[in-house]
Amino acid sequence: MPDSPTDLRSAFRSGRVTPTAGLAPGFAQTNLIAVPQDWAYDVLLFTQRNPKPCPVLDVGDAGSRTTMLAPGADIATDLPLYRVWKDGELADETTDVSSLWRDDLVAFHIGCSFTFEHPVAAAGVPLRHVEQGSNVPMYVTDRECRPAGRVSGPMVVSMRPVPEHQVALAAAISARMPAVHGGPVHVGDPAELGIADLAAPDFGDPVNFEPGDVPMFWACGVTPQAAVMASRLPFAITHAPGYMLITDTPDSEYVLEVPDAR
Question: Which HAMAP family match (predicted)?
Fold first, then answer.
């Protein structure tokens, strides 16, 4: 039986470090970005103006290390890997940020495409990065997000190779889950997103294509980290790309019901 979200969070708290794709199937995963309270409105406005890459599922009170998405979890210890940012530069990667957490930090929990991977896989669509035991590849695009106050930056996308005959199926399943990025933003030629080389992702790992695979690109919750860099936020704590918070919330809660046409 797969590990439960509680078991996995306990393992991460004890030092296990692994990308979370394919773990706890059936439960939502989230991206994390925590910023000082005096930047929180700008970040919130940025997410509202860019809901495709930044769909917000929960926002914490200043200083809080809890979330309604995973009651009992400590978001400063229960992710497998964190990033610490200072003045827009990556200052550290660590498995525990409890000593760095501040009373003025506001945490944003943003929907993650790992959440729709379970129903996509259940429909028979292969997930190459899961098959190959690697992190999903992510790329900074040339598509600028709509700026908000002091926050701006480019959209980041995740990429999954999908057999050509299953592209429409993967698109349709993910489109029913807009709270976790929804349908793809692009299918096919990566150059149309300003991506020069699929073998050299900006985050995550390269993935091998099988014959007949087509690259599909989804908006990615690492976009706020690109904004941290572009906007030179004085301080921020985020997840490391691909190392998410595994919540107790079933992924089915984020599936839009299709009206009965009868």
Answer: Hydro_lyase (MF_01830)
